[in-house]
Amino acid sequence: MDINDQRIKQAIRHTETLRLPQQSLATFGTTNIYYYMVTEPAYADLVNNIRETVIREGRVIAERPRMVTPYYLSHLEGFSTEARRYFDMLAKQPSSNIAGLFYSYRNEPKELTIVSDSLPSVVDRLNAEIDQRGDPLTSIIKGEDTLWDVSLMKFIYEMTGSSMRHNLLQMRAKGLLNIDSRGIPTDARVRIEELFRQITSGEREPRDLKEELDRWDLFEEYEDRFFNLFKKST
Q1: How far apart are CA 139 and CA 33, in angstroms?
Q2: Who has the most CB within 10 Å: 47, 129, 176, 182?
Q3: Which whole-number Å values give the CA distances from 175 to 12, 67, 106, 162, 183, in the listed order?
Q4: pTM as predicted
Q5: 35 neighbors 109 (Cβ within 8 angstroms)
Q6: What is the DSSP letter of 183?
Q7: Residue 25: φ, ψ to 5°
């Protein structure tokens, strides 16, 4: 095990979700989770009697989960090399392909504040503020300062695991988990039709549809409809 893996595992051991969102990840829409990542400053060990806490704020945006075959995948944006490496470690676990759902996340870091107060006091104040706002999709995470987005990745992984059963049940109820003779899930066909609609309305670019069709090896099947999009735009 090299030093980077050791640092990642240490960060994971020191990560704790202090406040969970009160809702699961949405099955048929985007979930926008606001987070407070609280850490002791990296220089705390070098300064005697320091009472400071680092607060990082941001949003994790989880897109609508999609059915894929034959294994579980995840696409991530806005994370460091170490955070991606942690995900690679998770992906090698035997349970990483359960359910065949694709969860796509985007991390949007916002403010960073250093306050002169202990971490428990900061957490108490943040909890009180969130309770006052009544926001069900805000989380507080205690993490590692130098690898804080590895801590965030652990939180995301746990949120995915806790939401998956609920998402699968709702998708199964709508028949989206059915597989056709070509091995294509109904959910994938629904996704393709939605991309056609979004391109026609100008919400998406044709390359997004082309990439999706290629990913499923379906471009030949939809080729005529794809090129008709360009005829309509001329």
Answers
A1: 7
A2: 176
A3: 37, 11, 28, 22, 15
A4: 0.76
A5: no
A6: S
A7: -65, 135
CA angle 28, 16, 42 (to 5 degrees): 120
**Phi–psi pair at 130, nearest 5 degrees:** -65, -40
Average pLDDT, integer, range 184-191: 91
List % helix, strand, coil for the chain (3-state, nearest 5).
50, 20, 30
CA distances from 209 to 3, 66, 72, 230 (A): 41, 15, 21, 13
Please give the single-letter amino acid code of residue 210. Answer: K
Token reading at 232? 């309509």
Sign of CA dihedral 182, 186, 191, 193: positive
Residue indicated by tokens 């005829």 = 231
Q: Which residues make beta-bridge pairs with 183?
A: none
Q: How far is CA 84 from CA 11, 59, 79, 100, in A?
A: 14, 18, 7, 20
Q: What's the half-sphere exposure (Cβ side, CA atoms, 13 Å) at 92? A: 5
Provide long-range contacts, Cβ within 8 A and 24+ apart, for 203-209. 206/230
The pLDDT-based confidence of 42 (bands split at 50, 70, 90) is: confident
Pairing of strands 16-19, 101-115: unpaired
- 129-143 confidence digits (pLDDT tens): 999 999 999 999 999
The token pair that represents 106 in the structure block: 């985007």
CA pair distance 155, 38, nearest whole angstrom? 13
In whole angstroms, give the CA distance from residue 7 to residue 85.
Answer: 11
